[in-house]
Structures are given as structure tokens and as C-alpha cells.
């Protein structure tokens, strides 16, 4: 039997209903405002659940955050700040990372098939291990 719970997060800009289920979390409306309350709620949910498939974290500040093993497949991560973050073993398959700042991040074993890294900055990032990356032009 599946267990489902939910909570309502309300701000002046939006009302967000967050479901917690055993399985991938599909959250396409999260983090609509850069650095605003909804963005902070989305980051908090990501850190709690360790997954945010198809969600919008565009422009989020995830500087020096431990994101090891998270599933961000098909997420919008445009212009996200991942400087110095640990993404060891993370799934970024199909993610949009255009313009992302990924300098000094640990990308060891990251799965990023069909991710878009157009204009992303990867200076000093560690890219070793068994992960599968194909860098598509964006």
C-alpha cells in the first residue's frame, strides 16, 4: 500500500501543494522565482527527498551543497549556481543546465545523458568515475 502525504505552502506569489510519495517526485512548478520563498521551499524539498524529477530550479543558489545521489533528471537548472557542490552519483539525465555555474563541483559518477550544458562553466570541476555523460550543444 502506498503512503501519500501533502502540505500546502503559501506565499504572496503562489500556492504550492507538495506531495510526498514513495517514488519519483515530479515538481514542474517549483522554484519559479529566483531566490524567493518558493525557490527556498523547492531547495528544502530537494534536500529532504533527494529527488526533484522534471522540476524547475532555474537560478537557484546551490553553492557548496551536498547533492550526492540526487535525481534531477529532466530538471530545469538554467543559470543555477552549483559552484563547489558535491554531485557524486547524481542523475542529471535530460537536465537543462544552460548557463549553469558548476566550477569546482564534484561530478564523479554523474549520469547526464542528453543534458544540455550550453554556456555552462565547468572550470575546475572533477569529472571522473563510471558516470555516463554526453555533452549536447544548446
TrEMBL record:
Pfam families: Pentapeptide. Coiled coil: none annotated. Signal peptide: none annotated. It comes from the Bacteria. InterPro entries: 5peptide_repeat, Pentapeptide-BTB/POZ_domain. This is Pentapeptide repeat-containing protein. It comes from Gloeobacter morelensis MG652769.
Amino acid at each position: 500500500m502506498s503512503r501519500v502525504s501533502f502540505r500546502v505552502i503559501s506565499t504572496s506569489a503562489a500556492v504550492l501543494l507538495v506531495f510526498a510519495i514513495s517514488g519519483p517526485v515530479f515538481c514542474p512548478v517549483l522554484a519559479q522565482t529566483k531566490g524567493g520563498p518558493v525557490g527556498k521551499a523547492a531547495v528544502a524539498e530537494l534536500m529532504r527527498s533527494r529527488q526533484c524529477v522534471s522540476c524547475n530550479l532555474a537560478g537557484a543558489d546551490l553553492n557548496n551543497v551536498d547533492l550526492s545521489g540526487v535525481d534531477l533528471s529532466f530538471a530545469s537548472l538554467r543559470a543555477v549556481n552549483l559552484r563547489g557542490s558535491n554531485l557524486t552519483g547524481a542523475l542529471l539525465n535530460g537536465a537543462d543546465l544552460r548557463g549553469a555555474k558548476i566550477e569546482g563541483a564534484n561530478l564523479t559518477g554523474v549520469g547526464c545523458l542528453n543534458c544540455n550544458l550550453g554556456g555552462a562553466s565547468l572550470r575546475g570541476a572533477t569529472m571522473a568515475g563510471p558516470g555516463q555523460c554526453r555533452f549536447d550543444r544548446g
